[in-house]
Specification:
The complex is a heterodimer of chains A (112) and B (113).
Chain A: E1 4-7, E2 10-14, E3 19-25, E4 31-37, E5 43-50, E6 55-58, E7 61-66, E8 71-76, E9 85-92, E10 100-102, E11 106-111
Parallel strand pairs in A: 2-11
Antiparallel strand pairs in A: 1-3, 3-8, 4-5, 4-9, 6-7, 7-8, 9-10, 9-11
Chain B: E1 5-7, E2 10-13, E3 19-24, E4 31-38, E5 42-50, E6 53-56, E7 65-71, E8 74-79, E9 88-95, E10 103-104, E11 108-112
Classes of the chains: A mainly beta (112), B mainly beta (113).
Chain lengths: 112, 113
Amino acid sequence: SQQGEEDPQALSIQEGENATMNCSYKTSINNLQWYRQNSGRGLVHLILIRSNEREKHSGRLRVTLDTSKKSSSLLITASRAADTASYFCATDAGANAGKSTFGDGTTLTVKP
Amino acid sequence: DAGVIQSPRHEVTEMGQEVTLRCKPISGHDYLFWYRQTMMRGLELLIYFNNNVPIDDSGMPEDRFSAKMPNASFSTLKIQPSEPRDSAVYFCASSLRQLETQYFGPGTRLLVL
């Protein structure tokens, strides 16, 4: 079974709105990463957050991590049509350190 | 750096044929990963290498799949014989160190007829 599971599976918003995606996982982690995938392309790394961190920012992206709830969220502020993509969380956990397990992703559509 | 390079970008073959996918990781990266992505199963890790040595191949679906990394700058994923259910996008990724960011190649889109 997948270690990381994203929620919702699909999200559709208007340009300028904020988009929030969530990731839940089952076992303790060393770090959690968020990736973006545009249709027909490879995955692009967005943010890595370590288990001892609670929040990280990168431009319009904000990632939070709650290890007590085994969950993370990705917030994209002031969304643009170019943000339309699938977003995946990946966890790198314990004995499997060095090996990431990806969720099924959230498909975000930003309407102009 | 050019990033992770994969070839071919597209491959169409007939059932039973041998397929070889190639990957050149980013220079200096110690870890190399092979993934497969399908609509049904999502993104699956097939195998990963550290310093050219296979560490975990538990994701390799069957003996028809094999992967090698003869040196730090080259890896292959081979399917022999190929089957229609192997149709997928295969990604190669590399990372500098353990627990660090993975950089993905553009993928090879494989169609087995």
